[in-house]
Design brief:
It is built from two helices and five strands. The chain is α+β, with helices and mostly antiparallel strands.
Length: 137
């Protein structure tokens, strides 16, 4: 038993968690139309609790000053790898709630950055960025 514990690989590192997140994102990317080759994925924070990890993941377009988004993933240790358990959550807020835990203001919600185009249906003839999934009209 002691020999087995001594041979166990230490995977409680940010890089090991990042690899688990990348494996997961690679598996779902084709389903959601995400082109990971154009994305920068970083793991700025991880907490470990035995065979579980909670990672804050930053995703943004490569070579861009555009702020990306932060997601939180829960991972479980499976052998010598981390495996994402469930879907990501938006960092800083729970689904349908503001960062303080309350429901968004009626008709309000999150404001877009200055100069950001409307998030409604794009005008006819508008070109979407490369790798963007089609918009249903």
């Amino acid at each position: 038993m002691l020999l087995l514990a001594a041979c166990s690989k230490n995977i409680q590192t940010q890089e090991a968690v990042r690899q688990g997140v990348m494996d997961y994102m690679s598996s779902v990317a084709p389903k959601i139309g995400l082109d990971l080759s154009n994305m920068q994925v970083d793991v700025p924070a991880v907490t470990f609790d035995h065979d579980h990890a909670r990672a804050t993941v930053s995703v943004k377009p490569k070579n861009s000053d555009v702020p990306g988004m932060e997601l939180v993933y829960n991972l479980d240790r499976k052998g010598d790898k981390w495996v994402v358990n469930g879907n990501a959550q938006s960092a800083g807020s729970m689904h349908g709630q503001g960062s303080d835990g309350t429901a968004p203001a009626q008709g309000g919600g999150t404001q877009l950055p200055p100069g950001h185009p409307s998030v409604g249906t794009p005008p006819s003839g508008t070109q979407l960025p490369p790798g963007h999934p089609p918009v249903k009209q």
